[in-house]
Specification:
Helix content is 44%, strand content 21%. The protein is built from 20 helices and 23 strands. Strands 3-2-1-6-5-4 form a six-stranded antiparallel beta sheet. Helix 1 packs antiparallel against helix 2, helix 11 packs across helix 15 and helix 12 crosses helix 14.
Length: 690
């Protein structure tokens, strides 16, 4: 078959090319070219352009001219291969495939019903080759009559296929570029979104962090500062960024130090840290900081990042802890000294008594030495136990209406020997107004006596001490004023703390452990009162004031019981079984009881106590509580369980004197509870009442 007589219509092609140059849409240009191709062959022919979809290995119809819609839909996708229809074979081989009569083509058997329905008898397929030789698709023509193109027509159709291939490749390249551009834009958008998300995240974290965060550039200028740092500077972001430490008003030494540190980080590529005081809007604070290098892709330092933390409270706590540890160390050294002081005369007195056992004057003299020193040690130990119990809240006050005047006079009587030994003059100014409080009488006497003793210790011999008592505004005020050493201003705020004392003379003539004022404060606080100290400095004396709320009623003095007489410690001799695993303690107490006229059997192993008691039942058991193998409580229960021993008097002897310890002794069956070292008069009085 030849083309129409007119051949190619260059005017039509020029119009199509002009549209292509002006950037007309690809599908519009395809449609125009297919129409021109139909005119070339004749209007009785239909034309279709297929493009190769490489991944699916099939042809897909991109445009058509003259095809009925049903026919176009049926042939919208065609497989590619050597045994396929003409378009599939042309795309596979890259050669023109002409089927002159579809009825005579075995490979078109599946398509014959469709061809018969639409009156198609021949099909020509021309491959579209890109300039690089790649097959892009096929140009197909369908005819109602069997025929084939001659060489001239095939050449003219080839012009169309080349033009379609150029336009298609340009279109595919544009699609690929557009796809890559869209993908790049999506990737950039995703990166920007992720970057913004991270910026918001980091900015939220840094802005809400109590730590200061910042970045320096290589010229030491701030390029970032978080909110708390700006707040500390008292500046906005715009006012601070781009400035150096010098320009932001840092002290010269401080700015110069950071300049050196930034240069060190740049040179070493290693972090550096330190701590520094700074005066900002938060006041003078102490900050711990670290500078770290920010390295670029080439491994060189691009910037220096830093974080700073306020460690003022931690530093103060550490300093306070160190000071407390220092005070504890001093206290332990002082405790050792104070305990050695009485031990030395006790040891010396024991040596004298060993050398002169038959000299009554020396025995009496050095026995009194031992007794005084033991009393002193007992006072030291009691002070320690009192402070421990009170500060841990293990003391329960036995509150009742108390006359403070009687408290003051009783306290003055207690410290009279100390005042007398120091030749101090004590003046009591008690006033005439009633002074009653609700409190624990014994503890309030202890408070007042401690204040008087403290004044005596720190007042040189011959000094003056005044104790005044006033009632005003619903409060009772006890003031102890002295003209002694006074208190240094640095010590005054801590005078009621544990392990705090004023300076002592080298001979430590004042004695004591310095726990009295801590005990005073705790006891007064437990009474709902307040205690204060005042001094104008060393050599000016001091004044301690206790303030307690007034009670509505004063106690009525208790009338002595009719016929009451003091116990007679030597009323009659008793049979006593003493059980104590401490051989020396058992021996000395046995000697004391024997001197008082009692018959004493001492046993050191509690396992032997039951057999000894049943052999000769005693009238009194004195049992040490803290014994190995069998403690005193268990032993008392065993002994009480025996009918022959149930009626005896049971006395507990222990180093524990708290109310809970006394209650434990009572529950174990003891009648009396004595704390070591035992006061001989009290023990003998308890025995005299049997």
């Amino acid at each position: 078959m030849r083309s129409t007589a007119a051949g190619l219509k260059f005017d039509g092609l020029k119009h199509v090319l002009s549209e292509a140059v002006r950037g007309a849409p690809y599908d519009v240009i395809l449609q125009s070219l297919l129409e021109e191709a139909r005119r070339l062959i004749g209007q009785q022919a239909w034309a279709a352009l297929y493009l190769l979809a490489a991944p699916a290995n099939e042809l897909r119809m991109a445009a058509s001219a003259g095809l009925p819609a049903a026919f176009a839909d049926a042939l919208a996708r065609l497989p590619v291969g050597p045994e396929e229809a003409s378009c599939g074979r042309a795309a596979h081989s890259g050669q023109v495939v002409v089927v002159e009569d579809v009825l005579a083509e075995p490979l078109l058997q599946p398509y014959l019903p469709l061809a018969a329905q639409h009156g198609v008898r021949s099909c020509w397929s021309f491959p579209l080759h890109s300039p690089g030789g790649r097959v892009l698709g096929t140009l197909a023509f369908f005819h109602a009559a069997p025929n084939a193109p001659d060489a001239a027509l095939a050449g003219e159709i080839g012009y169309f296929t080349d033009l379609l291939a150029l336009l298609t490749e340009r279109h595919l390249r544009e699609q690929e570029n557009a796809a890559r551009h869209a993908a790049a834009e999506r990737e950039l958008a995703a990166m920007a979104e992720e970057s913004e998300r991270r910026r918001r995240l980091y900015e939220t974290v840094l802005s809400n962090s109590p730590d200061l965060a910042y970045v320096f550039d290589l010229e030491h200028r701030f390029t970032y500062a978080n909110a708390v740092l700006l707040q500390m500077w008292g500046k906005t972001f715009e006012e601070a960024i781009g400035k150096t430490c010098w320009e932001l008003g840092y002290e010269p030494w401080h700015a110069a130090m950071h300049d050196r540190e930034i240069e060190q980080v740049k040179a070493t590529k290693a972090p550096i840290r330190g701590d520094v005081p700074f005066n900002g809007t938060f006041g003078r604070r102490i900050y711990d900081y670290i500078f770290v290098p920010i390295l670029g892709p080439d491994g060189e330092v691009e910037a220096i990042a830093g974080t700073t933390r306020d460690v003022t409270d931690r530093k103060r706590f550490e300093e306070a802890l160190q000071e407390e540890n220092h005070r504890k160390d001093e206290f332990l050294a002082m405790l050792a000294h104070e305990l050695r002081n009485p031990l030395a005369p006790i040891s010396a007195a024991a040596q004298v008594l060993r050398l002169a056992p038959n000299n009554p004057d020396k025995v009496r003299q050095y026995s009194e030495v031992i007794s005084r020193q033991v009393n002193h040690m007992t006072t030291l130990v009691n002070d320690l136990l009192d402070v421990s119990r009170v500060t841990r809240g293990m003391v329960q006050l036995e509150k009742a209406p108390v006359d403070v005047k009687s408290v003051v006079t009783s306290a003055a009587e207690q410290v009279h020997p100390l005042l007398e030994s120091g030749r101090h003059t004590l003046v009591l100014q008690l006033g005439s107004a009633p002074a009653g409080v609700l409190g624990d009488r014994a503890r309030l006497i202890q408070v007042t006596a401690n204040l008087l003793a403290n004044a005596a210790k720190y007042t040189p011999p011959g000094g003056h001490i005044t104790l005044s008592l006033r009632v005003e505004d619903g409060l009772v005020r006890i003031a102890v004023q002295d003209d002694g050493n006074g208190i240094e201003s640095a010590l005054l705020p801590h005078i009621f703390d544990l392990f705090v004392q004023g300076k002592r003379t080298p001979d430590r003539a004042q004695g004591g452990l310095g726990l009295g004022l801590a005990l005073v404060k705790n006891i007064v606080t437990m009474h709902g009162g307040q205690v204060a100290a005042h001094s104008d400095g060393p050599g000016t004396g001091s004044c301690f004031t206790v303030v307690l709320p007034v009670a509505a009623q004063l106690p009525h003095p208790a009338a002595p019981a009719a016929g009451a007489t003091p116990p007679d410690a030597s009323s009659r001799a008793l049979r006593i079984l003493l059980v104590d695993d401490n051989v020396d303690a058992a021996a000395t107490l046995s000697a004391l009881l024997a001197e008082a006229g009692h018959q004493v059997q001492a046993i050191n192993d509690p396992r032997d106590a039951l057999e000894a008691a049943l052999g000769d039942p005693p009238e009194v058991f004195i049992l040490d509580i803290g014994m190995p193998l069998i403690d005193g409580h268990a032993l008392a229960r065993q002994l009480r369980a025996q009918p022959a021993l149930a009626g005896a008097l049971y006395v507990a002897l222990t180093g524990y004197g708290q109310s809970s310890d006394r209650e434990s002794s009572r529950q174990a069956g003891f009648d009396h509870h004595f704390v070591k070292p035992v006061e001989a008069a009290g023990l003998l009085a308890a025995l005299a009442n049997l």
